[in-house]
Amino acid sequence: MQEAFVMANQRKSIRKKKLGNYPHAMVVFSITLALFVIGVFGLLLIHAHTLSENVKESIEMQVYLDRDLSEVQLARMQKSFAAKEYVAYKADTAQVRFVSKDEAAKLLLNETNEDFLTLLGENPLRDAYVLRIDADHAGTPELKSIKLDLQDTDGVYEVQYVESLIQSINSNLQKISIILLGFAAILVLVVIILINNTIKLALYSQRFLIRSMQLVGATSYFIQRPFLNRATWQGIVSGLIASALLFALMQYAYHEITELQLLRNDEQTYLLMGALVVIGCVIGFLSSYRSVRKYLRMSLDELY
Amino acid sequence: MDFSSSPVVSLRDVAVYQDVNTILSNVNFDIEKGEFVYLVGRTGSGKSSLLKTLYSDLPLLSGNAAVAGFKLTKLPRSQVPYLRRKIGIIFQDFQLLFDRTVAENLSFVLRATGWKDKSKIKQRISEVLMRVGLDAAAGKMPHQLSGGEQQRIVVARALLNEPVILFADEPTGNLDPVVADGIMQLFLEINNSGTAVLMATHNYEIINRYPRRVLKCENGKVLDSQVEQFTLMNGFGNNS
Questions:
Q1: Between B57, B83, B112, which is nearest A222 by CB?
Q2: Could you state, in order of their start, the residue ranges of all structural domains in chain B?
Q3: Which member of A131, A278, B91, B202 lies 3.0 to 4.6 Å from A61 by CB, making a disulfide possible if both were Cys?
Q4: In chain A, which residues have their Cβ closer than 8 Å to the Cβ of B157?
Q5: Residues of chain B scoring pLDDT < 70
């Protein structure tokens, strides 16, 4: 009984002590939330970007060859294709694939289930090289000039790619990325205002304290320093918490949707997390600098 | 500047403004080192505004004034903290930092005024607390103390940097007579050790018991008991 009473008393005194104090938890919570929202959007941007790179890199050019080329000629062609700057690289190997006409016939047979070889008596298909195009060269006009370049090569019969599909992919990707970037800009602005207001409100509760400090002869710098330190630390801590939350969210998403792993880009993700910490710390510092300065310059009448 | 002979506070043709309203005009007086001066007047007569002007909480817009060697006319904002370190201010509403203990309140002032050595800070705090008789209160929060005790803490804080003058704005304002007398004794003691005191008060009983020079704010002027005769209270005859 008595213990409970003592505990209740203690709790009361703790609560009383907190009254009028700087609301640490509220500030950290709000900044964390704001940064987390930015982070989620950043992740979305990163994944969308990787997706578009992947789509672009899966663009293939089919280079059909003249009939009856010798092994040596084929090898030379492969080498010259691999040396082209617009060919995509994956783990240091050029993405140039040779498809012989026999392979092509087999694939066609599997797809159509029609035995055209016996029907025609011979294989009408040609040997071909399939080139993957680097994402940086996947624009519609670039692809056209690549096609012309390949067609000029000796021993090439014809070059083909799905032009209309690529055109629509390209124009859609552009639209989507402009919209996403616009959203991101708005979001960052909203978050900055949100954090600024949170800190302003938190410091509003300290305005008379700041005045008392002035009245006992503390310089502006001396008064400001602890407030700035605190806000900066809160920004950093919030950034770290937001990054941790983001990491957890990502792990969960990768676990639930395994295909998402394909779009994973660790380097950019860690960069994003670092950016969250920096944003939190910079906005925290600037907001509290502005607010404390404002209260430092106010007269008593304005404070009420 | 010769500190030993020049007055601690010196006002010439000073006008005190609150916003755009003139509260007091043509104010002239000096306070010498170690003097004890009462400042009286009705509520709203300009006592507080005059004090605020003296510690540069209100800007001095016309006239010349010097406090503790600082010229108040066009005193830059950055110089105000240094003026306030030379003087001790006792506020009617205490102005204690409510988020920290008494000892932390005092050490804040010391650190803010350039004290670095922790043991010296500790020593100075216990010295001033001893002087106001509250050495046991160091670990308490301001709200855990009574009004009289808080007022003593404020006096202790004002004494930290050994000021040349104390400005006290109704320090006995909301204290019971016994406690008020205790605070008054404290001021007299401080005054005896050489610190000048300018004390705004309503408590005529105290003035009658400890008569000293009196400045009176009335009808936009400041009357000086050294210069002219006046009644302490309004409506009680013409001559005292």
A1: B112
A2: 9-235
A3: A131
A4: 216
A5: 1-5, 233-240
Instruction: State the amino acid at position A53 in one-letter form.
Output: E
Chain B contacts to A (CB-CB under 8 A) = 19, 55, 57, 78, 80-85, 89, 91, 95-99, 108-109, 111-113, 141, 143, 157, 161
Residues of A with CB under 8 A from a CB of B: 16-17, 20-22, 209, 211-220, 222-223, 299-301
Beta bridge partners of A64: A128, A158
Q: Which two tokens stand for residue B80?
A: 């105000």
CATH topology of domain B9-235: Rossmann fold (3.40.50)
Chain B residues inside the 8 Å CB shell of A301: 19
Distance from CA of B58 to the nearest CA of A (A): 8
Pick the residue from chain A with its C-alpha nearest to B154.
Answer: A216
User: Do the Cβ atoms of B78 and A219 come within 8 Å?
Assistant: yes
CB contact (8 A) between residue B99 and residue A20:
yes
pLDDT tens for chain A, 304 residues long, are 455 555 555 554 444 444 456 778 888 999 999 999 999 999 988 888 888 888 777 788 888 888 777 888 888 888 888 888 888 877 777 788 888 888 888 888 888 777 777 777 777 788 888 888 887 887 778 888 888 888 888 788 888 888 777 788 778 888 888 888 899 899 889 988 988 998 888 888 888 889 889 988 899 999 999 999 999 999 999 999 999 999 999 999 999 988 888 888 889 999 999 999 999 999 999 999 999 999 898 877 777 7
**Closest in B82, B95, B143 to A212, CB measured:** B95
Whole-model pTM: value is 0.73
Chain-chain contact of B84 with A216 (C-beta, under 8 angstroms) = yes
Residues 6+ apart with CB under 8 A from B235: none
| Phi, psi values for residue B162, rounded to 5° | 45, 70
CB B209 within 8 A of CB B38: no
CA–CA separation, B167 and B169 (whole Å): 7
